[in-house]
Design brief:
- By secondary structure, this protein is mainly alpha-helical.
- The protein has one domain.
- 76% of the residues lie in helices and 6% in strands.
- The strands form three sheets. A two-stranded antiparallel sheet has the order 1-4.
- Helix 3 packs parallel to helix 8.
- The longest helix is centred in the first third of the chain and has 27 residues.
- It is globular, with a radius of gyration of 17 Å.
- The N and C termini lie far apart (47 Å).
């Protein structure tokens, strides 16, 4: 099996698994424990894959995702404490880091790795423009689904902002589109750049998340 096929099975398989789990969590209103459980499962799958294959492309994307995942805590804290639009469930019952549930940065690691690889794959085949279009559409269209599922499952909800489809803030849709839009520009040479530069790219992506995906999009669409 080729590296490309193996990576795509990993990415699409984990996306499908998390979607099925979130649907069940929403139907049965499982609450925050389901988010923690799925995050652990996904991390184990990715960790097992990386240990078994020593796949440097996915390992570099995972490292990039780790920087972005913990950098995203700043945007989360802004949404919870400053704009006060984001409300996480389970405060006082489950472990939190800063203003976010402990699962959140690790969940972002997985999501950034998944979408980052898809952006990388499209860029390698059809170039930047198609990758930018594809990544942006992924960010903008997946979010309404997952926000609805998260609210029904009891993971988090939003308040005091422009909301459509009952649960999804418009500024979050715009923010996720902005977040994923630049991923092709960041990850296209991830297999060649030094590890320190991946760290820098992750920090820059985190700054983009905080100032553009969160604050600017809220100022325009909140």
């Amino acid at each position: 099996m080729s590296d490309t096929k193996r990576r795509m099975i990993l990415v699409l398989g984990t996306i499908g698994l998390s979607l099925v789990w979130d649907v069940l969590a929403a139907i049965l209103a499982w609450g925050p424990w389901a988010a923690y459980a799925m995050t652990v499962v996904l991390l184990c799958i990715f960790g097992g894959y990386l240990l078994r294959t020593k796949d440097m492309v996915m390992l570099r994307l995972f490292w990039f995702g780790a920087v972005v995942g913990f950098g995203e805590l700043f945007a989360d804290a802004w949404a919870v404490n400053t704009s006060q639009t984001l409300v996480y469930h389970g405060l006082g019952e489950w472990p939190f880091v800063w203003a976010s549930p402990l699962y959140m940065p690790f969940s972002w690691i997985v999501v950034v790795t998944q979408i980052g690889y898809i952006a990388f794959w499209i860029t390698q085949r059809w170039g930047f423009w198609w990758a930018i279009v594809g990544a942006t559409l992924m960010g903008a269209t997946n979010i309404p689904v997952y926000e609805w599922l998260a609210a029904k499952a009891g993971f988090w909800t939003y308040q005091d902002c422009w909301i459509i489809l009952k649960y999804t803030p418009v500024y979050v849709i715009a923010g996720e589109a902005a977040l994923t839009m630049i991923l092709p520009l960041v990850v296209w040479r991830v297999e060649h750049v030094p590890w320190k530069r991946i760290l820098l790219l992750g920090v820059l992506q985190s700054i983009w998340v905080y100032w553009v995906s969160a604050r600017l999009c809220f100022a325009i669409f909140g």
